[in-house]
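re: ur question from the group chat, yeah i did fold both. here u go
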Amino acid sequence: MASTTIAPLDKVTCGTCLREGSWAVRLSVVVFGLGNLLNRQFIKGLLFLLFEIGLLRFLVTDGVYNLSKFITLGDVEQQKVWNDAKQIFEYVDGDRSLVILLYGIITLALIGGFLLLMRMSLRSAYVTEQKARRGKVPTFVEEVKELLDGRLHITLLSLPVLGITAFTILPLIFMISMAFTDYSALNDKLVLFDWVGLDNFKRIITLGNSLSKTFWPVLGWTLVWAVTATITTYIVGMLLAIYINQDRVHGKGFWRFCFVLTVAVPHFVTLLIISQMLQPEGAVNILLRNLGVLEAGQSLPFFTNTNWSRTTVILTNIWVGAPYTMLQVTGILQNIPKELYESARIDGASPFVTFRKITLPYMLFVTTPALITTFAGNVNNFNVIFLTSKGLPRAVGSTAGDTDLLVTWLYKLTIENQYFDVGAVIGILTFVCLAIISLTTFRLSGSYKNEEGFR
């Protein structure tokens, strides 16, 4: 029995359509647009039908083949065939697993699109049938006008969603899928490779494996670096902002300008200059030799000693990152109610108590989301590490140096060593660790628990 009211298209379920719809509605699952065509919505019905024919044609001609190859990622190697006419050997291309993987994922995405179109056809047929029973079937022009008026949000979001799916989600799935293959230069698996399931994850996580002996130290240093880099830039930037904001400090604009100069210079330029200055024959070591601090031929081990190298990249990060925090905190300080400070002064609170009870809690409440963002950025801070220390020092035969982060190690695994399978695993594990830490920290923060606290 038909419904007494017509629910909006986005509210109708497929179960309702199959239970309450006519035979034409049910057949719209097989012949897309049939319900619309029978109710004189010819343009809309034909569009559904044409899309179905196009997708079915692709699935029959190419899709089945792509999926059959997708299961094995190919098994025909490149062959050398003797050409009697030319009296030479010719090479015949075999299967290319990377192309098969790509086409397989695209085919699966199109199957998902086919199912979505089937759902839309069914629901559209049901809603159109309900409207036809009341003599109110809208024309194609009227439905287009509705998409530009009452359902404008759907129209505006459709293209961005398709773009994100095509250029973000599918490439991510493609890259993630490499983690479950043996696609690498190891054992010459760059052209023809296979599915290996979770073997790569086991190689990375299982203790005692050569890769795990690199992964766990790099992960530990990455977390130490991210926490230290975030806290140090925040503290230094906050102290600079508080000091410059003092009433007794004159020329506030000038001092802010001096520190913001480091922001005006592109980071990669600053980092490359610092790296060159700290080389064994760089400006710093030469100056120290000329001053008699170092002996001739001696140099400070900025990038040859682990502790020196790690300290160097942390200090470099403070130099390029603290001015951003200073600007951010300056705006927050100017918005803290003056009445709070006046009340504290009347109660006899010392400057330290005032800072601990008023300034710091207020700043942490406002800046916690920004701190989490900074932490995430530092986990993936490729520039500071790669352009300054290049991951050095680095043991002979190792794929990662003592200052390499997961992201710089991933770069070396893929670009330098062509271990694409392990690189994909590192990318996935980096995302998982970062997501867990960021979400947990935010949920435990006052910004999440007490949103109205400082309003």
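okk and heres the other one u asked abt
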Amino acid sequence: MAMNWKQLLSSKRFGLEHYHDPNKHDRTEFQRDYDRLIFSPTFRRLQNKTQVFPLPGKIFVHNRLTHSLEVSSVGRSLGEIVSRYLVEKYGESQGPFIAELGSIVPVGCLAHDLGNPPFGHSGEKAISSYFSEGPGLPLKEKCGLSDAEWQDIVNFEGNANALRLLTHQFHGHRPGGFVLTYTSLASIVKYPYESSYISKLGKAKFGFFQSEKDGYRRIASELGITELEPDRYARHPLVFLVEAADDICYEIMDMEDAHKLKILSTEQTVELMLGFFDEEKKQRRREHMASIQDVNEQIAYLRSSVVGELVRECTRVFCENEEAILNGTFQDSLIKHVSERVYNAYQNCERISVDKIYRSQAVVDVEISGYNIIYKLIDQLVNAVLEPGKAYSKQLLLRVPQQYETSAGPYYQRIMAVLDYVSSMTDIYALELYQQITGISLPHL
């Protein structure tokens, strides 16, 4: 059975399912979701998490916070355009929230990177490899972990961790985590299946840990999200818009940052960005650039033009494939179905990014350092929670905030508590803790 917008768009809150607020609010429930994230310390910590390049010195480049804010801005545009299309197509027949996609999509965009550990993908690799090929390898048998629990850990995934962070009841906190609406939560689950499907589908990512499986089942049931196989679901339609906003921002903003850092020349950057346009539009943009003296402003102008073009293309693809999206048969990213010229230009940017940006010395150096820092922290903390009676373990566990329950429950829960703690750290905090527990530096009084 196809999904329908009336059921997919719900203001019911995770953890407050039976609570009804009789008061009228100036903000919609989805605007309240947005504000709840913006004012949270979890979101603020993204300002000290690496996006691609090292945290800024003289030249300010994107971090996870600025990236998430920009993704949210693009997501708002995508949501508003699709909303107008759906309102024109369905009127009010699909419920009162169909006009609010411009408020809902930005929530998913703000939250999409919350589960990423310090040092980006390098941090994810460090966590996974510690268990899959490092000292943590014997722990599956030693701790009696199930196959599904082990797959969660050896394939640690920031996307799944974001759902955990938003819904898990940490010690001393209220049920439901952030208590967001079901629809906002569903919009961030890009890979709506458990970790056991990684090998079955040949994918490298998944959407929820075993600890959040029942929670996602509840969300999917409430919203009428199609279950394709046991614990494997179709995407919620808004996931496509959140994903598109992220795809647009990370690729284009990385190019702009690389230009500022002189990894890419002005000529290279201009050529790459003009590739998104036909000859007539190229000429108009060249004429406008001639009136701008500042080179960085020229690139910023081109960047905004490219973002606008990609927004138009992605919303067109979404609207043209809306029926297939609701049927669960459309599964690609929207970017893959934009016009040939735009997609070729996007792929060209991807190729240059891999060759010139992601393999640049500055980026690789941060990845190597970050990998070793996270690997060491995981090693020390996991050993401490598995043998909490040892003298050093007692000392080390005093450093872990009480919200992370490292000393009670099954071993899977204890290990997940360690991963909660480490993944919540900023790059700077992780570095300082690493230096302290290895004796490289002493704390200042």
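fwiw on the second one: The chain is about 60% helix and 0% strand. The chain has three domains: 5-237, 239-360, 362-437. idk if thats what u expected
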